[in-house]
Amino acid sequence: MLRLEMIEHVETPRKAVAITFDDGPSPVYTLKVLDIFEEASGKATFFMIGRHMEKYPEIVQTVKERGHEIGNHTYSHARLTSLDKQDCLREIERVDEMIAAMTGRKASLFRPPYLDYHAPVVSVCGRLGYKMIGALNTDALDWEQPGVDHIVQKTRRHIRNGSILLFHDGFGDRSQTVEAVKILVSELHSQGYELVTVSELLKLKL
């Protein structure tokens, strides 16, 4: 069986972190997030859902044009462990083709919905040449809207060189996430951290 690790952190001497967003694009929250990163001269990685990409292709273009990275988060946000290999392939490959068509670039990063995967997902990712990306701050639970302070405090504990951090810019009210990210990006910037894409972070690996 193919083995594929879920990458949550990169060992690096560089003071750099990768902030990622799932479930977009959103006509409201993705744009707010982009403005935060523009102000900090940083880059982020957006794991997009195919259905949302179809609905908001202009936002996909904006993300690309501003120099951020786009990763694959499946077409419909299905729980892949409930699907067989062929259905997993359809969910992932469809977005693979969409990203290439919309951006002119082949995506190299995949994040399974709910961070849940099984052998068929590993096989499909291996076949399509994807690295599977997790995150350290899953206890921040920003998707549950636990409060800005909760998101910030839980995330701070996981900040170090090479951290990959997870937030959400789609599905519902993400105003808490936007406020928390604004605080965290400001702190990281003032502490001298580089805000880089996941692919850039992987290149810094020891």
UniProtKB/TrEMBL annotation:
The record places domain NodB homology at 15-196
For this UniProt entry, the molecular function terms from Gene Ontology, in alphabetical order, are: hydrolase activity, acting on carbon-nitrogen (but not peptide) bonds
Might you name a Gene Ontology BP term for this protein? carbohydrate metabolic process
Q: Which domain of life is it from?
A: Bacteria
Among InterPro entries, the record links this protein to: Glyco_hydro/deAcase_b/a-brl (IPR011330), NODB_dom (IPR002509), Polysacc_deacetylase_ArnD (IPR050248)
List where the protein spans the membrane: none
PANTHER family reported for this sequence: GLYCOSYL TRANSFERASE-RELATED
Q: What is this protein called?
A: Peptidoglycan/xylan/chitin deacetylase, PgdA/CDA1 family
Q: Which organism is it from?
A: Parageobacillus thermantarcticus
